[in-house]
Amino acid sequence: MRVWMLGSGSRGNAMLVECDGSRVLVDVGFGPRALAQRLKEVDIAPESIEAAVITHEHVDHVGGVAACARRWGWTMFATRGTIAGSGALAHAGARELQPGVTVDVSTLSLLPVRSSHDAQEPIALVATGRRSGERLGVAYDLGCVTKSVRAAFHDLDLLVVEANHDDGMLRDGPYPRVVQDRIAGRTGHLSNNDGAEFARGCVRRDLRHVILAHLSEQCNTPSLALGCVGDSLRSAGYRGRLHAAHQRRVVGPFEASGHIASGQLSLGV
């Protein structure tokens, strides 16, 4: 299993998962031109992608759904609430996901897990390679980590986790108080500290990569996020690599298989 972060943040989100020759997107927050360009950078044809899983209906996650479905015929998957909240998904004939119920999409088994965000029926996602058993957990756009998310995120080889904001930068930043409260609330976004605590709980021997997603351009920096989460992972004995996704460029690939060095945690951007 391999993962590329094609872009992550308030301007758009999309990640590519490749497993045993099959390719699936998680979120389609960019239009066809931007997505085609980013995929070209990693030598992947959009036509080779079979499906897309949408985590929730906010525009930075569904902005390209209508145009990409028309152009490339991708099958879209989302929860009933997410489909109801997005005319583009409904028009594209999206297939319904039920939280807690695994669905097979090509070589992957996908488990949508109900999450806590201010959307109609948002999900975190666990993707498992049916042949290899390799597991990817994706948890971003959630204000708190619920028991159901914690329970599902076990035995991971790859983890994508939100580190949206630094608490101090959010408090002293440009947003009005009502927006600050929404971001920091239980249906908002995980802070660096929240992401660090969750990632620490996911540490296991075979966890190879932790990728920080949805960093705020106003209230965070990659160095702050990497430092905070890195300290927490290091204290838990994590020996893999830690990376920060980027809003404007592709980061990856991150591979589930391969050797883990016996040395210290390694940071990357």
Write the topology of this structure.
Blueprint lengths: L1 E6 L6 E6 L2 E5 L5 H10 L9 E3 L5 H4 L2 H8 L2 E5 H6 L1 H5 L3 E3 L5 E3 L2 E7 L8 E7 L5 E5 L7 H6 L5 E5 L4 H6 L4 H8 L7 H10 L7 E5 L8 H14 L5 E4 L6 E5 L10 E3 L1
Parallel strand pairs: 3-4, 4-5, 5-6, 10-11, 11-12, 12-13, 13-15
Antiparallel strand pairs: 1-2, 1-14, 2-3, 7-8, 8-9, 9-10
Helix pairs in contact: 9-10
Commentary on this structure:
By secondary structure, the protein is an alpha/beta fold. The protein is built from 10 helices and 15 strands. It has helices at residues 32-41, 59-62, 65-72, 80-85, 87-91, 147-152, 167-172, 177-184, 192-201, 222-235, and strands spanning 2-7, 14-19, 22-26, 51-53, 75-79, 95-97, 103-105, 108-114, 123-129, 135-139, 158-162, 209-213, 241-244, 251-255, 266-268. It has an 8-stranded mixed beta sheet with strand order 7-8-9-10-11-12-13-15. A 7-stranded mixed beta sheet has the order 6-5-4-3-2-1-14. Helix 9 (192-201) packs parallel to helix 10 (222-235). The longest helix is centred in the last third of the chain and has 14 residues, at 222-235.
Describe this protein with a few key phrases:
single chain; eight-stranded mixed β-sheet; alpha/beta; globular; 269 residues
Low-confidence stretches: none
**How large is the radius of gyration?**
17 Å
| Proportion of beta-strand residues | 25-35%
Largest sheet: 8 strands, mixed
Topology, number of strands: 15
Oligomeric state: single chain
What average pLDDT do the residues reach?
95
Give the N-to-C terminal Cα separation: 20 Å
Helix content: 25-40%
